[in-house]
Amino acid sequence: MATYAIGDLQGCLASLRRLLDRIRYVDGYDQLWFTGDLVNRGPDSLATLRFLRTLTRPVIVLGNHDLHLLGVAWGSRRRTAGDTLDAILTAPDRDEILDWLRKQPLLYYDEARDIALVHAGLPAQWDIPQALACAAELENELKGPHLASTIDGLYGPRPDLWHDDLSGTDRLRFIANALTRIRYCDRQGRLDMRDKGPLGTQSAGLVPWFQVAGRRSASTRILFGHWSSLGRQTLGNTVCLDSGCLWGGELTALRLEDSVFLSVPCAKHGPEGMT
Q: According to the model, what pLDDT value does residue 268 have?
């Protein structure tokens, strides 16, 4: 039995199938973890979600594109250029698929391995128990009766610094930005929502979220996606698994038992500049 953590899919089901062949995945014996951004910009978002729902015990965390889909479906977000969500929104099984999606977590923690799985990252101020508690706050709202208004409030760059007394929409927006959109922070741990490039291209004073001094989750191994320009690599106690499948890069799996990367090449589907 092996556990494989897999980077952002974004509707690239053919690449996922090739990767599962590459790793000789056996459903019900091996386990798959997914870093989120299951859908959008790629060619087969509907088929991807349908396939994931057939898997035995997958671990899935939601990414920013998954939240965007929920917002569009519930009428609180507009479609954007490059969206490939129409097949989901018009599918006969749309409601059950979206209900399944909204119930997926934003953060997963394997206590026995001391490994966390998240789409984007964790802010410096949170240890793992606080991160799980904050993720649960937003997860409960996404599963609740006010999903449309919840999603509507999640967009914007402020607040950019965590305080325990944040409340209401501001609190949920920070949680969403941290878990599904973070890349860089300043040295005090303020989230930066603008810079998206590889290391070394960021604005002065910014560091990747995992290099903020004093980060309280530093002792836990964290697996994340979201950052295709960073690419597949291990950086201290963190591992980026987004190797740019959508952009013609690779789709990557990390076998947790021995930290071996396994990848397959991918066709390019998304125009440059999209995130």
A: 81
Query: Is the separation of the CB atoms in 275 and 37 below 8 Å?
Result: no
Alpha-carbon gap, residue 6 to 8, rounded angstroms: 7
CATH number at residue 82: 3.60.21.10
- State both tokens at 6: 């897999």
> Is the per-residue pLDDT at 271 higher than 80?
no
Contacts of residue 116, defined as CB under 8 A and 6 or more positions apart, other chains included, come to: 107, 108, 109, 110, 122, 128, 131, 217, 220, 221, 222, 223
* Residue 112 pLDDT exceeds 80: yes
226 assigned to some structural domain: yes
Tell me if 228 is assigned to some domain: yes
Domain assignment of residue 36, yes or no: yes
Helices and strands per DSSP (H, E), number in the chain: 8, 13
Q: How confident is the model at residue 269 (pLDDT cuts 50, 70, 90)?
A: confident
Residues 6 or more apart whose Cβ sits within 8 Å of residue 170: 158, 159
Task: Quote the pLDDT of residue 273.
Answer: 41
What does the pLDDT read at residue 163?
A: 96
Q: Is 131 inside a domain boundary? A: yes
CA dihedral (160, 147, 47, 28) positive or negative: positive
The residue segments making up the domain with residue 182 are 3-265
Range 216-228 average pLDDT: 98
Number of domains the chain contains: 1
232 and 240 in contact (C-beta within 8 Å)?
yes
What pLDDT sits at residue 274? 47
Per-residue pLDDT, 11: 97
CA 181, CA 66: separation in Å to the nearest integer?
A: 12
